[in-house]
Amino acid sequence: MLISFRLMVFGLLILSASCARNPVTGKKEFAVMSEQQEIALGANSNPQIIAEFGEYNDQKIQAFIDEKGQQMAKISHRPNLPFHFKVLDSDVVNAFALPGGYVYFTRGIMAHFNNEAEFAGVLGHEIGHVTARHGVSQQSQNILVQLGLIVGMVAVPELAQFGNELSQGAGLLMLKFGRDDESQSDKLGVEYSTKIGYDAREMAGFFKTISRLSGGPEGRVPTFLSTHPDPLDRNKKVGEMAEAEQKKTNNYNLSVNRDGYLRMIDGISYGPDPQQGYVESGVFYHPQFKFQFPVPSDWRLQNSPQQVQMAPKDGKAMVVFALAQQQNLREAANAAIAQDSFKLLNQQNVTVNGYPAIAMTAEQLNRQTGKTIRALIYVIQADSYIYKFYGLSLSTDFQNYEMLFQNTFRGFRELRDPNRINVFVERVRVKDVNRAGTLADYLRSQGVPDKRLEEHAILNGMEQTEQVNLGMLIKVIEKGTGTN
Ligand SMILES: [Zn+2]
Question: How far apart are the CA of 125 and the centre of ligand 1, in A?
């Protein structure tokens, strides 16, 4: 299961202030964190990031990002900082860095690069955020914490707060950098990638892909450039910087390595992975765990490895679904109440489609606002797993939602339909072009439907009308089969 992130909460880091020299500019600056604090911050957030997204299960790609990352870290402004590089199992096109040397790329962005030089430019950009200590200096004391919650659309603050507590420290530290920081990182991306031998003009080219994706299907919009509304402007600037850097260092013998990169990512997952859960015709299916439950009509759902959350459009209620960690139903029920200092109103043993369950109603008083949340809670034992459902609203709204919560929770059942179970993530296959023509012609010859031609063109960093030649490598999205 996996969440996407909507709610943004500003938290203030209260740390001892100190003066330090910036590793990149050499200027003295007021830093709110020591290097040790910075490393600790990244190290503490790293397990949460991994838990939230999952690591992408491909040793070859993980080894590649680590090798290139470590190589670049050595020639950066902070060669002694221990860096960590990971590819996350998310289809969103994104890359980001945490203070202290933690750098993440999604499988979504890895699928969209078309050569090593593009990758290296973005790698340099992210390493640049770390080496220039973006996010740890005075200007950015307000650290943006994005919680893995749907409650960006939850209108009731008490519910949002409750959701935060439920995810127990799953508050993810994600820094939102300012325009100046982004420009500086672009510059460092050019510098670092040139230094390890890549043509940084390719990094500029990748902004075109970003620009095309921004107008593309929902969920693919990359956020790593979100503070820059115009990637095409960056395309131009980075292109100029790349040429200036090559002139300055008198380095023209630079690598792009298109074929090597494409062969390396051959078979990479593409788009959402339905094995981790998907919604179809108002039902949430989870093939891996083999269960299903109805999604109230017009509610939105977000799925993460840790929990599923749902909320109606008016934002006045929320459903949270997660695995319970306890050994038996009774313990799980007690923990669900105790964990968030609920007051139990009533409790009964029930059966949900053959599974033993405990249904409870409970209340929680928010001391700050004096408002009361009411919850319908179900814990359900389905074979060796115990699941818990929370249906939450203000107690004053509860009667509007109680039936709907109940219908949803009582609709939980085993997923048996093989047609719903045997659905697999699509994969990018890298193919040798066997006859010259336009990209669109070739894609059609590979069975790509017309409505997905533009998507393929973006994925290949080309136009549909562009010429492809014999032996050229082209990415084609193919249906998943459950095996690599
Ligand atoms: Zn950035």
Answer: 6
Tally the C-alpha atoms within 13 A of residue 248's C-alpha that lie toward its C-beta. Answer: 10
- Residue 32 pLDDT grade (very low, low, confident, very high; cuts 50, 70, 90): low
Ligand 1 centroid to residue 105 C-alpha, Å: 12
Distance 175 CA to ligand 1 centre (A): 9
102 in Cβ contact with 42 (< 8 Å):
yes
pLDDT at residue 165 in the model: 55
User: Measured in angstroms, how far is the CA atom of residue 9 from the centroid of ligand 1?
Assistant: 20
- The interaxial angle of helices 179-195 and 201-214, nearest 10 deg, is 140
Tell me the helix, strand and coil percentages in the chain, rounded to 5.
35, 25, 35
Tell me the residue ranges of DSSP E strands in 18-121. Answer: 18-21, 28-31, 84-88, 95-98, 102-106
CA of 237 to the centre of ligand 1 (A): 15
Q: In what order do the strands lie in the sheet with 278-280?
A: 278-280, 283-286, 291-294, 413-414
CA trace torsion 473, 476, 479, 483 (10° rounding): 20
Residue 83 backbone phi and psi in degrees, to 5: -95, 155
Cα 285 from Cα 378, distance rounded (Å): 18
- Find tokens 């992210």 and name the residue: 126
Residue 481 pLDDT:
83
- 33 or 99, greater pLDDT: 99
What distances in angstroms separate CA 407 from CA 298, 346, 483, one per listed residue? Answer: 15, 18, 36
Q: What is the pLDDT of residue 214?
A: 74
What backbone phi and psi angles, to 5 degrees, belong to 201? -65, -25
List, for residues 292-304, the tens digit of each pLDDT value. 999 999 998 888 7
Give 219-267 pLDDT, tens digit per residue.
444 444 444 557 788 889 999 999 999 999 888 889 999 999 999 999 9
- Å from CA of 185 to ligand 1 middle: 6
DSSP annotation of 140 = G
State the pLDDT at residue 442: 98
pLDDT on residue 8: 27
Choose among 110, 214, 198, 93: nearest CA to 475.
Answer: 110
The pLDDT of residue 231 is 79
Determine if residue 18 is left, alpha or beta; phi over 0 gives left, psi from -120 to 50 gives alpha, anything else beta: beta
Q: How far apart are CA 308 and CA 321, in angstroms?
A: 5
pLDDT mean across residues, the chain: 85
Q: pLDDT over 90 for what percent of the chain?
A: 60
How far apart are alpha carbons 111 and 91 in whole angstroms? 9
* Distance (Å) from CA 225 to ligand 1 centroid: 6
**d(CA 128, ligand 1 centre) in Å:** 8
Q: Residue 258, CB half-sphere, CA atoms under 13 Å: how many?
A: 11
